[in-house]
Amino acid sequence: MPLFGHTRTTIARRHALIAPDGHVPSTFPGWKNATAFVLISPAMGADFSQLRVTFDLAGGCAIFPKDEHEHVVYVEAGECEIELADESISLTDGGYIFIPWYTAFSIVGNEETRVTLFRKIYELQAGFEPPPLVFGTASNIPGEPFFGNPRALLQTLLPIDPRYDMAVNIFTYQPGATLPFVETHIMEHGLLMLSGQGIYRLEENYYPVTAGDAIWMAPYCPQWFVAMGDEPASYLYYKDVHRLP
Ligand code: UGY
Ligand code: MN
């Protein structure tokens, strides 16, 4: 527990670190025995939202009606069913699904289930069809050395296809491995530390980060990471892609 009256959470204009000690739940219409922690949202200046959803009982249900938002659900722990109009898809630990904007769905879980969800308004691209639903398991996606470094592996969960306007990736670093340079880019990120620890540079600040922490990086937030400690550090992250500014 942090020192009385202290937290590692910090919310700046162009970045945020959200530590689990400060999470406060929300519930939404129609949800049953399911709780959301809205870690990143347009309310802080982001162009997307990042939620962590947990369930109190077997059969707990989080409902997402059809609107202009598309979603990616990633299973951090336990298992869940993604219920669509005419089918149900089972996901376990490390499973993920991209659900296009034109599809309503529910997540049904139990006390062991914890998911992270990215939610954004789909940006149409003239001349391209809407993207289809896809799902899979992170462990089946090979890790590619980042800029040739086999100690920093990038797994790309969604198809690299101009119909998709978002990417969701997992980055895994061996202790001591780093992002090769301080990145500054138009793309925005929402990030969840899945395991391990390290130091994240966000603008001119250096933050110790560990499993369970969430980070928001606004467009053009200078960013860099070094993994530290005895275990590899791994993070899941969202990025907007494939659309002209
Ligand atoms: O895809 C990315 O922009 C990635 N290299 N950024 C990051 O890990 N902060
Ligand atoms: Mn980046």
Task: Name its key features.
245 residues; mainly beta; Jelly Rolls; 8-stranded antiparallel β-sheet; 50% strand; binds (2S)-amino(carbamoylamino)ethanoic acid; binds manganese (II) ion
Short description:
The chain has 245 residues and is mainly β. It is 0% helix and 50% strand.
Q: What report would you give on this structure?
A:
The chain has 245 residues and is mainly β. The protein has two domains: 24-138, Jelly Rolls, CATH 2.60.120.10; 139-240, Sandwich (Jelly Rolls). Helices cover 0% and strands 50% of the residues. The protein contains no helices and 21 strands. An eight-stranded antiparallel β-sheet has the order 1-2-19-16-21-15-14-13, with no helix packed on it. Strands 3-4-11-6-9-12 form a six-stranded antiparallel β-sheet, with no helix packed on it. It is globular, with a radius of gyration of 17 Å. Residues 183, 185, 189, 223 line the site of manganese (II) ion (MN).
**Strand neighbour order, sheet with most strands:** 1-2-19-16-21-15-14-13
CATH superfamily of the largest domain: Jelly Rolls
Helix content: under 10%
In this entry the ligands are: (2S)-amino(carbamoylamino)ethanoic acid, manganese (II) ion
Radius of gyration: 17 Å
> What is the count of distinct domains?
2
Task: Give the distance, in angstroms, between the N- and C-terminal Cα atoms.
Answer: 42 Å
Determine the strand fraction and express it as a percent band: over 45%
Shape: globular
The CATH architecture assignment of the largest domain turns out to be: Sandwich
Order of helices and strands: EEEEEEEEEEEEEEEEEEEEE
Q: Which blocks of ≥5 consecutive residues have pLDDT under 50?
A: none
Fold-level CATH name of the largest domain: Jelly Rolls
The number of distinct helices, counting runs of at least 4 residues, comes to: 0
- Return the CATH class of the largest domain: Mainly Beta
Structural class by SSE content = mainly beta
Average of per-residue pLDDT values: 97
Major β-sheet, in short? 8 strands, antiparallel
Q: What is the number of beta strands?
A: 21
